[in-house]
Amino acid sequence: LHYKGQLVHKEGGRFRFWCMGDNFMVVRVDGRVVLDFGNQFAHVWDGKDSKRTSYHLGHWPAWSGQWIDLEPGIPLDMEVVFGEYDGGSFAAMLVVEEEGVDYPSNREGGPTLPVFKTAELTRDQVDAIYADLYENHYSVTNGPVFCDYDVLGKAAGTAPEKPATSHLPRPTSHIQESALRTWTLKSGKSVEAEYIMLLGDKTVLKTKTGKQLKIPTQELSDWDLDYLELANPPPLKLTLQKELDRFRFKAVLNPYETPPVMTRITLGVKIEKATRKPYARMLKVELFSIAYERDGDNYVLLDRQEGTFTLSEENDQTHVFWGKGAYMRDYADYAGIRRGQKFKGHMIVITDERGEIIAKDITNDWFLDVIEPLRRFPVGRHFDETGMRVYPPRAKVATMFW
User: How far apart are CA 344 and CA 214, in angstroms?
Assistant: First the structure.
């Protein structure tokens, strides 16, 4: 890869790059080489030799370059070239040190430097890096940003805002008690009462004084009949559908590793009305597919889909709804620790026009506690049991160096 751009810092300062380049990396600023991994290009581009440090980035030794003085807001041309000689594994890391700044120490006693960046990383970018970045090599949530404009929004390291309550109340699937309303008969008479139940061809109501009334249902107004239909949704049978497609690697670069497996999982649901009683109301289905991290304590929202449907004689009072496929990884890192995701469970919720849950199929009860944040949650990201977004688990400190 050959990157060309401009290096600029709004306040200016003195900086130098550190890198790991397997097999090579070279950085040139303002026409001169300031970092050359292994001094491999000294015979081609002018520049002082870079220095091999006693620390590591990734699996190779870290090299540090020459100090660069940047004037506030004054850009300098910059080039970065890195790549591989003859195929195989490839990796490169470029971090930056600012003069006079104290950095946390890594396991080798060296500085944990911030990654070089020209803009604040988004939360999705940080998650993508953390998913595969071993702990203790470099940081992605601090350090200088090399640009000459104000970056809007919060820094990537800012903790996500906490919901007002960790455990949200569960929606109900019945008419609330003490729900007094005015009922009107076709004769014109009316009464204020609470709906209790349907009993045969009569509707049982209770007045605010506690008196029970049994009124022939067909004598109620069309408005009341509409209310009763909503208050008495049909029983539904939900049957989970699941498709799995596994891809197992036959060979890996490290012959001592267990070949990784990729699994594509797709969930669906078959919705059936358990009675023949007509019900023409529009219903909403929501489907959530959730995985669990093998080496962490958080969860991944694999898929979230929703749709609307009606159950009628035309569709045999049955509706089948499918989500989208999502991939789960299963592999071992260099330390032999199993990483990736495994399927945790699903949440299928059917709601009516009132927003009331009338049917559900949920493998873990606490899923329903966090349904509201999950309805807004980005697919593919990590969360905890309170529904808050968290970083993916990090691999432990790498101890295998080349």
Answer: 48
- The whole-number pLDDT of residue 391 equals 94
Radius of gyration of the chain (CA): 31
CA distance 294 to 363: 18
**Distance from C-alpha of 67 to C-alpha of 18, rounded to nearest angstrom:** 11
In the predicted model, residues of the chain with pLDDT beneath 70 are: 150-178, 251-257, 398-402
What is the C-alpha to C-alpha distance for residues 56 and 112, in angstroms, rounded to an integer? 10
Distance (Å, whole) CA 89 – CA 373: 40
3-class SS of residue 231: helix
Give every CB contact of residue 202 below 8 A, 6+ residues apart in sequence. Answer: 214, 215, 216, 217
The 3-class SS string of 259-303 reads CCEEEEEEEEEEEEECCCCCCCCCEEEEEEEEEEECCCCCEEEEE
Nearest-5° angle of CA 249, CA 255, CA 257? 70
The predicted pLDDT at position 157 comes to 41
Distance separating alpha carbons of residues 330 and 332, to the nearest angstrom: 7
The gap between the terminal CA atoms of the chain, to the nearest Å, is: 23
Q: Dump pLDDT digits (tens) for 255-313.
A: 666 788 999 999 999 999 988 888 888 999 999 999 999 988 899 999 999 999 998 88
pLDDT value of residue 139: 93
Query: What is d(CA 82, CA 2) in angstroms, rounded to the nearest whole number?
Result: 7
pLDDT at 253: 63
Q: What's the whole-model pTM score?
A: 0.80
